[in-house]
Amino acid sequence: MALSAQQVSKRIGNPATQILTSISLEIPDGQFVALTGRSGSGKSTLLYMLSGLDSVSDGAVLADGKDLSQMKRVEKAHFRNEQIGFVFQFHYLIAELTVLENVLLPAKKYGKAAERTEFAKSILEKVGLAEKHQRLPRQLSGGEEQRVAIARALIMEPKYLFADEPTGSLDSVNGEVVMKMLELANVEKKMTIIMVTHEMDFAKRAQRQIQLADGKIMHDSS
Ligand SMILES: Nc1ncnc2c1ncn2[C@@H]1O[C@H](COP(=O)(O)OP(=O)(O)OP(=O)(O)O)[C@@H](O)[C@H]1O
Ligand SMILES: [Mg+2]
After folding, report:
1. Structural domains in the chain (count)
2. Domain range for residue 22?
3. For atom 4 of ligand 1, which residue has the closest CA?
4. Spatial distance between the Cα atoms of 104 and 106, rounded to a whole number of angstroms
């Protein structure tokens, strides 16, 4: 089983700007992939395509052979909520909700907030935020918000975790905490992880490194 991109291109705007050009990839289930490349090379855009959060202009993304663009609305919603965890480059926490409520948001959509509460607290404890679960996002530092966003992405124990610079605003101690959590989720839960990073030490720890340049794959270690 695998997540695959078949000649995926993405154009945006009118006149159109080419953002990704004919990307083909196969990511077997359980692989930990580091996605690197300069600013503007298309890393975030590729994550949106692979996760189905945005649609491709050409080509297709298939999860276990199923074309994401062919999924009906309800099926797509289930796929996003249950199989995909996404840590956005910019955190997108809900300002009016507490830390714990933000983490439980994906579970709440399925009426599973209550049964996931203890698990949510255990993840928050792992990222060093046990004492802060009743705070609002504005009462957190940028790095703390980042860790809440990671906890939220893990709450449903998704099959695929997309993380866009998850350690980007963290100091080295917390960056290591987050990296270890991702490695644990990968090893213990067999979670497929696709992580954008600028930190070469972290990229090297992934099983596979893919480098983008100008919307194309420049190097793939597999
Ligand atoms: N909605 C959009 N409209 C027009 N251009 C866009 C849009 N989104 C992204 N781009 C352009 O596409 C290119 C790739 O953007 P993307 O965000 O994928 O890069 P990135 O590799 O994630 O960069 P960074 O490391 O800075 O996060 C950039 O040149 C960007 O300006
Ligand atoms: Mg980006």
Report:
1. 1
2. 2-220
3. 12
4. 6
